[in-house]
Write a structure and sequence with these properties.
Blueprint (H helix, E strand, L loop, with lengths): L9 E8 L6 H15 L9 E8 L3 E5 L7 H9 L11 H14 L7 E8 L6 H13 L2 E8 L5 H11 L5 E4 L4 H6 L1 H6 L14 E6 L2 E6 L9 E7 L16 E7 L6 E3 L14
Parallel strand pairs: 1-2, 1-4, 4-5, 5-6
Antiparallel strand pairs: 2-3, 7-8, 8-11, 9-10
Helix pairs in contact: 1-2, 3-4, 4-5
Length: about 280
């Protein structure tokens, strides 16, 4: 079972709709979903920084970009956000404030920049929202929008496509069903964790055997932001060191490493190939 954890060096702003049409119970579901999205990243001073804006009529900077760099603390602060239940959907101004955080806040860095917009409706001013999105994209900010319950509204979808600049960056779910929302977590995370090429040589691989389980460690001086396919061949060279002679017959298998680095992961025993997992 491969895992997804993105140790991307990036600044991410979450822009969350708190308008009255969402309603309190659905807002609680949305906030849990937002927490799940943040859990796909390594939140730390040297990896991903996150900020959050809630909008309806007012625009509230709930969490300044990079002001919380501990994953657990970030999750708790997001869960404690109070629902605005406002009367408007001022998407454009919210996007502009998120853009300002990514470009001009004291914590802003010269790294990849992403914005996630979560909304259930059309902006009060579609023109303002479109303009704000275009301005962000011109600054090389990648915007992904999650539209909830708007699949039947061509106008709402079109406005989100105008904001993101691409229909590929608009994800739609039918309603605030937690299962449906969680189904798009990987897709949402993948859009901000692009594949890059990293070369690994034999000097980067360390092998250790412990109680009949082989461990392989990839060691690099930078985070890995893609799944690494590695072909491993096991050959029994010192039978006396194993549990019993022939524990590891000559064999070649393909394994997938998680999106992280400098960690040991179990590969296989003679009886069973283990899933690769990352433990936070």
């Amino acid at each position: 079972q491969a895992c997804f954890l993105c140790p991307l060096l990036a600044d991410v702003m979450l822009v969350v709709d708190g308008s009255g049409s969402i309603m309190a119970a659905n807002f609680a579901t949305l906030i849990r979903f937002v927490v799940t999205v943040t859990q796909q990243f390594v939140i730390s001073p040297n990896a991903t920084h996150v900020g959050l804006i809630q909008f309806s009529g007012p625009i509230a900077l709930e969490i300044g970009l990079g002001t919380i760099t501990n994953g657990r603390e970030l999750e708790m602060n997001i869960m404690n956000i109070r629902y605005q239940n406002g009367g408007d959907t001022n998407t454009g101004p919210a996007i502009r404030q998120a853009t300002n955080q990514l470009l001009n806040s004291s914590q802003a860095r010269n790294v990849s920049k992403f914005m996630f917009l979560f909304t259930d409706g059309i902006a009060n001013s579609q023109l303002q929202a479109k303009s704000a999105g275009e301005a962000a994209v011109r600054e090389n900010i990648i915007i992904t929008a999650v539209g909830i319950g708007i699949a039947g509204s061509a106008a709402a979808r079109q406005n989100l496509e105008q904001i993101t600049g691409s229909n590929d960056r608009v994800l739609l779910v039918d309603d605030f069903n937690e299962g449906q929302l969680n189904e798009i977590v990987d897709e949402l995370s993948t859009q901000s964790c692009p594949t890059v090429q990293i070369s690994f040589g034999t000097d980067d691989v360390r092998v250790n055997e412990d109680n009949g389980t082989v461990f392989v460690c990839l060691e690099k001086d930078r985070p890995t932001v893609l799944d690494i396919e590695l072909q491993v061949t096991a050959r029994e060279q010192n039978p006396s060191d194993a549990i019993s002679p022939g524990d590891f017959d000559a064999d070649t298998i393909n394994i997938t490493f998680c999106r992280y680095y400098k960690h040991y992961v179990p590969i296989w025993t003679k009886q069973n190939m283990c899933g690769v997992q990352y433990h936070r």
